[in-house]
Specification:
The chain has 966 residues and is an alpha/beta fold. The chain contains 29 helices and 34 strands.
Amino acid sequence: MKLTRMLPASCCLLLCLMIPQALLAQKPTGSESPSYYNIGGVLSNNESESHFGTVIAHLNFDQQYVPRGTTYYDKTIRIDKNPIKTALNVCKHLISRRVYAVVVSHEPTGDLSPAAVSYTSGFYQIPVIGISSREAAFSDKNIHVSFLRTVPPYYHQADVWLEILSHFGYTKVIIIHSSDTDGRAVLGRFQTTSQTNYDDIDVRATVESIVEFEPKLDSFSSYLMDMKTAQSRVYLLYASQEDAYVIFRDAAIHNMTEYGHIWIVTEQALSANNTPTGIIGLKLNNAENETDHIRDAIYILASAIKEMTVNETITEAPKDCDDSGAIWESGKRLFGYLKTRNIRGETGQVAFDDNGDRMYAEYDVINVHENHSFVKVGSFHYDSEKRKMRLKINDSSITWPGNTGKKPEGIMIPTHLKVLTIEEKPFVYARKLLDDEIDCADDEVVCPHFNITNGNEQEYCCKGYCIDLLKALAQRINFTYDLALSPDGQFGHYQLKNHTTGIGTTVKKEWNGLIGELVAERADLIVAPLTINPERAEFIEFSKPFKYQGITILEKKPSRSSTLVSFLQPFSNTLWILVMVSVHVVALVLYLLDRFSPFGRFKLSSNDGTEEDALNLSSAIWFAWGVLLNSGIGEGTPRSFSARVLGMVWAGFAMIIVASYTANLAAFLVLERPKTKLTGINDARLRNTMENLTCATVKGSSVDMYFRRQVELSNMYRTMEANNYDTAEQAIQDVKDGKLMAFIWDSSRLEYEASKDCELVTAGELFGRSGYGVGLQKGSPWTDAVTLAILDFHESGFMESLDKEWIFHGNVQQCEQFEKTPNTLGLKNMAGVFILVGAGIVGGIGLIIIEVVYKKHQIKKQKKMEIARHAADKWRGTIEKRKTLRASLAMQRQYNVGLNSVSKSVSSQNAEKTRYPILPPLPRTPERAWPKDKEYIVNRKNASSAGKPPPRYMPTYATDVSHLIV
């Protein structure tokens, strides 16, 4: 507020003439602090003004607060109901007199009258000390920059509320407050102080419900109907006297002021003329004693000025309101000194917080008895030894609502609870109710699932470990319940969610899943395999664990190299190759030694005189294989001494190889146990993000939270985060199918899966050990009862029976028994040997077929050779006959004409040769033996018709049969 030219010049001149000349003579000069200080007072009555002057007069003689040479003077004005007039009077009568501070009283009929004094003085940084103003608005230092007060604000009563709640052990409350600044300040103070000063969650008071109403209401019934549905029966009320009257009136109509209900109210509400019997309220000590507050305010100011003059120089205070730019720096520093005061005054221990509000204010605890009588039953006072506030209450003198001396429980314990669970084998099996089914089986419980995505509701039947536990709890601690499945199928994850408001979209962290339903108080109980961890325990309560477990890794057992060739596993591939090579190398050397040895052949002992041949290559190979395979060797043994020495060495080699193979075969096929691929959570392949190994867990689960908490697992978590599944069922199925190599989850579930399917195995030791607990709302009345029942179940062996029935299936695990006994060889282990025998049989059949075909080919070839040989022999015979015949004919002709003369014979012979030239001899083949005889006859006829002698034989008909001769 800018105040300029508020006082006429004549008034200023009049005020100057009224200042004593002695005071003007003492006006400080230079850099020294003033020797006199004017203290202003804006008070509400004559008595206060008179007392103000008296206190300052006595102060000047108190050397503890006023050093020698320093004098205090008072200047007071009367507070006005009109704030503007009050501001003008401050400028006209106080600031013009250079006041160094102003003490302001509270006008009963004008609630904000001190605000004008605070605005005006604060504009020039002149400290203002309020002695009766308790509104929350004066705590705002952005507006009331230099205001502090010797009385506490109304909202500080929330501190006393918390102490009273802690004393009586009430942890869940309903706050009722007006929608003005003070009402909201009470709520804020309560919540902030509860979180800051009460670290123990078990004793911390939490707000179950907040009821905010508009001031000057006509009816409160609608709010009371909503309050009846809450568990808490402890009501903290901040309201004015008029509003409290309406609230108490309607509460009495709805029987909410009877036994079982607790009302703790502030000073204003306590002053209503219809306060019910049993109400507990507060009353500030010395709240209306203005004279004591005036004295404490003046002495606090003197103490601050004294300390300030020792440490620094105080400049003159502002002299008028005309200079709007004049900021008094000394006043700002003086306000800082005032906030550090801590003295014992008439109103108790006086100290201030950072807002300039009074600390260590003392209250009386008032209890309303019959006939509307107020009785002090305790006090909230300052303990000088411990230097803190302390609450003291006489419980025996308290009358509670319903005019009884028995303290109510503070909560209404419902006997019908809404219980949530989630499908997680073997703890909860969920089966969808078929269309033709009306009800679930005897061992099942109806557990509908309400889908929050599409709003559909489906009927399910549930059974399992947790369902049996829920039945036992309901019977033991006597409650009924409605069971339902998790709406979104999640355990609960703390995630960011967008919220649309009137001013835009805000992002807020909220829980989903089972935890979200419990935090939002849409459920009373969670009976499921819910892991206890710090993140969840901050928002909900857990019972003692009903099952202890940890985290482990599920993977599929590594398959053996090959079932068909498992008999080859005792030796490595390299050794098998060397054995194969050795067989043939030894056979070759045996053959060479026996071949070139001079003693490689010898006569047999028989009388036939034959001698046995040396070892051939085929027999040598047969011998080498026979010795290796330990088969009887009936023929083809080495004959030379050198070869037999090598044979003995080879037999020793074969013995060692066969014995080693037999021993290792027993180890591999009988005693072999499949080992896990991973050694545990510390396996380097899990920690190494570059390794081709996929691992995952369930999104938003306790295991997911565990990995986010562990710094050393951060690299691993970043890798697996992208692979995480929505449910454990999907992950386990992918492990079975080989799509996922490692699934990290609760040990109870994974051990159950490994016992059910022997192809699955858990790897490594348990880590992140914790337990499964029943989840409840914060401050739930059922917490202790559920915990005690679970402890009793452990002692009685009930939990062990549930383990045997649902987790171990009532018998010893077949997989464990299988692991402890040697393997029995089966067809799958020795199938390769049988296949090898089968291959030998098939190979033998194939070879015999080849031999038969080859033999038939040889027989056919031999027959052809026989035919050819027979034809050749016949042809040779014919040729010989013809030669003989030709020779005889020639001899006959020679004989017939031999009698003629030699000349005639010679001439006739020459003529004969000329006429009938002798053709070259033809092959000696009979004419009938050739396929082209007809052509030969035709040629002879043609030759005869031409006058030539026909040829007897045609060379072209001679057939070469030399290839038929063997």
